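Chain A, query sequence.
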Amino acid sequence: MAETETSDLFLAVMRNVAASVTVVTATHESSHYGLTVSAFSSVSLDPPLVLVCIDKLSSSFDAIKGAGGFTVNFLAADAEETAMHFASKNDDKFSAIAHRSPALDIAGPWLAEAVFAYFECEVVDTIDAGDHDVFVGKVHNGARINLEPPLIYWSGSFSRLVRPDPAVSG
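Chain A, predicted structure.
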């Protein structure tokens, strides 16, 4: 299979793999940075480890690398505007967004009105992976804010999960 065909196949398949939508934030040299990320995964329960994949050309890449930590903000289903805001090239992404300081001083701010949960993480490993780096983070703090369903990215657009009605049984 030719490289172009492999790339096309890769994109076609990955567009149909549903992913939770997160905003990864970092604070470096007194400035906040953040970007929308769908390449997030849990890694380990003991110790609690997660990973995020960050494009090396992203304006947040050096901040995450330099800070030594990050916050994963798990966006709630109604936070599409927040996802698009952090996917933009806007230089000041935090002035119009409600956010709170992390308890872990090397982590980034958490997005107070857009999340159903967040994790504050310390970078414990960085893996070179093509045009991205994989940042493995140890979860030190976080919270589950509410029981809202997550924002999902699938087939090139945002989607929402619908909770099954417990009164209806199958």
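The longest strand covers residues 115-129. The CA atoms of residues 73 and 118 lie 5 Å apart.
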